[in-house]
Design brief:
This protein is mostly helical and 224 residues long. The chain is built from 8 helices and no strands. The protein has helices at 2-6, 11-35, 40-52, 56-65, 70-79, 86-105, 109-139, 142-223. The chain is rod-shaped.
């Protein structure tokens, strides 16, 4: 608190930026690592097994149990269209992906902005401190010039340091969280493609069985 008081008026805005950044980081870490936590490989294997058994309702129920997870919502959108054409299934998952991806990246970009704001506030405090120092020196008597100059430079250095102390973790956290978000979105796309291929293969198998059944019916009719 003593350093905040010595740093001048710009220390408080930088402190507010640091509090906002910390709250944002904690919220995103909780969301991406805890709220969206899911054994994705096991989850997808369970869905594949249900599809092999043609238990479509069971696969949809499995997705409903993990409805807070983006992957579950995207795959469920495709499963709800399982009896439709491949194009409709693909479109349904793409639409859900467009709705879901922004929730993963949500507010992460603000960290870069907060880091830049902290840096600029520190720079502004530096300039303000130097102006104070030189104005004070120009008007002060020789006995107090050194003290006024030291106080102004102290304000300048403290605001610069505090601004950088806030900005560096903001920018590092932005890069880290952005990387995590990209990884999650790429995983979504990969597993959605896996599910789509599985459903498409089931459709082809069903069509082949229907064709064989028709052929047998036709051949039976000819023999009769």
């Amino acid at each position: 608190m003593d350093l905040l008081a010595k740093g001048g008026v710009f220390m408080l805005p930088i402190l507010m930026v640091s509090i906002a950044a910390l709250a944002l980081i904690l919220e995103r870490v909780y969301t991406l690592w805890l709220r969206y936590r899911l054994d994705e490989e096991g989850f997808v294997k369970g869905l594949m097994h249900a599809l092999d058994e043609q238990d479509f309702s069971g696969a949809i129920e499995e997705c409903a149990r993990a409805e807070n997870n983006p992957l579950s919502r995207v795959l469920r959108a495709g499963l709800l269209k399982v009896h439709r054409s491949d194009k409709e299934i693909e479109r349904a998952m793409e639409e859900e992906m467009l709705r879901t991806a922004p929730t993963i990246r949500k507010r992460i970009g603000y960290l870069a902005t907060l880091g830049n704001v902290a840096t600029l506030l520190g720079l502004l405090g530096t300039i303000f401190g130097l102006i104070q120092a030189f104005e004070g020196v120009s008007m002060a008597d020789p006995a107090t010039k050194q003290e006024i100059l030291a106080r102004g430079i102290s304000v300048a250095m403290l605001t610069t340091a505090f601004g950088l102390i806030v900005a560096i973790p903001c920018l590092l956290s932005h890069a880290f969280l952005q990387s995590k978000a990209i990884q999650m979105i790429e995983g979504l796309e990969e597993k959605a493609f896996t599910l789509f291929n599985k459903i498409s293969a089931l459709h082809r198998d069903i069509e082949k069985k229907e064709v064989r059944l028709r052929m047998k019916t036709i051949e039976g009719g000819r023999r009769a």
